[in-house]
């Protein structure tokens, strides 16, 4: 079964054709990173406008790359939640219109769940076995989720404030590192001393919940202390007072603490639930330090999705769409609406 996936929830316009939920036939991603870099973050109105400009060429290109025509496409799947409302609308209106015009079944996919399905797209066709423990770490989400099957999952814990990717991005801003912050911190951290600054790990009532806002503030306070200014000093001007060594040491100490916080909880959950497999998903899953620590801490062999499938893409949307199509009726293209803030907790 060939599914066309469409993803526009944030700042990537993406379309992909996937065979049987596992084999990528094409995967086109138009990233807006350069457009938003000048603002230091995603500007929703600019994102929506850019999606409109490129959505049709991106879909046409992915059909061309997969060497298929509309006749070959069995169904369309699209991210309908969560995300930026203007961005979601562009992908949804495109998918709904195409489903009606081309007479294809339409599947509405939850973006955060879709990230997990990057792990079903291994080129060797091997898929993770249930029960699957998953760590979803992205710019908007940090969750530990236990999947008993495709439809039966439980959120063990999640962030109570900032997502981990958001913390990477905000700390990068404090340190004057370029957007997007995650890869910049990882690069700078390689040259730094992870023990240079002692940063706190938060303790929460639910042992699987996360909190990263305190860690970000701890970095801010430590930087202020290091350069000898008080709380009122503008945070945007701190970086110019730091040496390259101090920046690298802060990046490295922050990354070590953030990664350890994640890995500690993964190990506790692994020991409690003894899943058959563990997967990691979302943009922060590209972090090599995180991958290294997880592999060293779990007693099973862990495989990771390719880096280009960790950040937003439509292949994961097509994969989840396929697995939904095995158990669910298609959605009505005339009434499908976007839900910008839908939690995975609510039944889809
Ligand atoms: P997503 O929300 O899944 O599209 O992922 C984007 C988030 O992943 C952003 O917050 C990035 O800063 C973060 N990110 C990307 N690459 C890395 C990396 N190597 N290390 C840490 N965070 C990263
Ligand atoms: Zn995402």
Topology (elements, then pairings):
Elements: E1 2-7, E2 12-19, E3 23-31, H1 33-37, H2 44-65, E4 75-81, H3 85-101, E5 106-110, H4 111-116, E6 132-137, E7 142-147, E8 153-158, H5 164-175, H6 181-190, H7 213-227, H8 244-273, E9 277-281, H9 288-297, H10 307-310, H11 315-327
Parallel strand pairs: 1-4, 4-5, 6-9
Antiparallel strand pairs: 1-2, 2-3, 6-7, 7-8
The structure holds adenosine monophosphate and zinc ion.
How would you briefly describe this protein structure?
This protein has 348 residues and is of the alpha/beta class.
Cα-atom radius of gyration: 20 Å
> Bound compounds, please?
adenosine monophosphate, zinc ion
Low-confidence stretches: none
Question: In which order are the strands of the major sheet placed?
Answer: 3-2-1-4-5
Helix content: 40-55%
Percent of sequence in beta strands: 15-25%
Output the structural class. Answer: alpha/beta
Shape verdict:
globular
